[in-house]
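Q: Hi! First time doing this. I have a protein sequence and I read that you can turn it into a structure. Is that right? Here it is:
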Amino acid sequence: MELRLSIGDGVLRINVKPDDRTLWQDTLHSITEPGNILLACESSSCALVDTKLTWVVGAAIRDTWIDQAGAIVNLLQTLGVASPLAEAVPEHCPGLAGELTWAFYLERHGWLTACPVLPLMASGYAES
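A: Yes, that's right. Below is the predicted 3D structure, encoded as structure tokens:
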């Protein structure tokens, strides 16, 4: 289950596949004090602004916090995402900078993928 949006010369892919959401949820749950943004980056040994967004396999998963949806645009651009794709994210990712965590990564062919991450409830199951 996914939504593909053509944005300029690129594609913004909203990924809601249950298996992928579960993997991101497990990652979020493993972080002691997680932010509301998860990013698949090339490196975890430098400042966030000094790395680039990449695909998930072999990536350094980084977290950060944004307090308004528009802040994601500059962050993604800093991480190497094309401006039209970064600028489309606030419109197409509901709950961004709110109660919902979003994970971002690049597909190998350059698509920007966004995946909503549902919070775990005390029972260990995701809220619906």
